[in-house]
């Protein structure tokens, strides 16, 4: 279920935001799932991710064709500039070059997912890539053992990721390549890991203190080993999975709403709550808040509990767009589903 929900977040997060009382809440979800080796993490995740992988392959071929056309236009522009320079000397040269208009912008790279990353790599990638991406790995040791999560880089990486989760923004200043500030980005995440990795991550003071872990929906399911008898059937024809893949492909292929910006900035539409959905959400928010007090049910998991109401909105927004790509409201039933899932993870 975490694999399916994470894929749904990746497919929907660039299309809409939840808007409530002046606040903008992205649809990005971060999932952290723990299971021992042999629990079929990779097998299940591969089924959930199949349509994303197929879309990435198709998008890469389209991008290569677009780059060929773009390079041809750039060569044409260079030739035209040389013609202007040959005809005009001194006064009038600037006007002649400006009359050619701005150079065409290159097509955005279609990279949708990555497994290993650094905050510096994200800062370089996102201005020229599709602004909705995901970090997906069925072997989270690659992520938590990578350079981006080394002791020297973990504070910087966690801080960068948290800003992307909160508002879709990030900034970076370096002596070598100057300053950059990016807006309108979205980052979904699903990391599947073995207990030895998750236990180390959950006990990391830096990841906890910076709020990285509190933004993750955690799942540590009971083992099903010993009960998984072979079933003579094909998932390729399973109606639910076929329907899911068709919707993921549809959503991934939908042109992202873009702002008038050279940095590939998203401009998602607003999703509002119906009156009864908002009333229910407020009750959910207040009920959880009461339980984070000393002695309450969630007192020992306060960082996660404090974000569960927002998680409910994010999940409900994902479900609303996945159910209806043109949706503009979250109804009571969908809000109930989001709150139920957020409560389960809490």
Task: Describe this structure as you would to a colleague.
By secondary structure, this protein is of the alpha/beta class. Helices cover 49% and strands 14% of the residues. The chain contains twelve helices and eleven strands. The strands form three sheets. The chain has a five-stranded parallel beta sheet with strand order 4-5-8-3-9, sandwiched between helices. It starts with a helix and ends with a helix. 33% of the residues are buried. The model has no long low-confidence stretch (mean pLDDT 90).
User: With helices defined by DSSP (H or I, 4 residues minimum), what is the helix count?
Assistant: 12
H and E order = HEEEHHEHEHHEEEHHEHEHHEH
Low-confidence stretches: none
Main sheet strand line-up: 4-5-8-3-9
- How would a crystallographer describe the biggest sheet? 5 strands, parallel
Q: Strand tally, please?
A: 11
- Compute the CA-based radius of gyration: 23 Å
Please state the overall shape, judged from the principal axes of the Cα atoms.
globular
Give me some keywords for this one.
single chain; 346 residues; alpha/beta; 5-stranded parallel beta sheet; 4-stranded mixed beta sheet; 12 helices; 11 strands
Could you write a compact summary of the structure shown?
The protein is built from twelve helices and eleven strands.
Topology (elements, then pairings):
Layout: H1 2-12, E1 16-20, E2 23-25, E3 30-34, H2 41-87, H3 93-99, E4 113-114, H4 119-125, E5 132-137, H5 141-144, H6 154-167, E6 170-174, E7 178-182, E8 186-193, H7 195-202, H8 205-209, E9 216-219, H9 239-253, E10 269-273, H10 275-290, H11 302-323, E11 329-330, H12 332-345
Parallel strand pairs: 1-10, 3-8, 3-9, 4-5, 5-8, 10-11
Antiparallel strand pairs: 1-2, 6-7
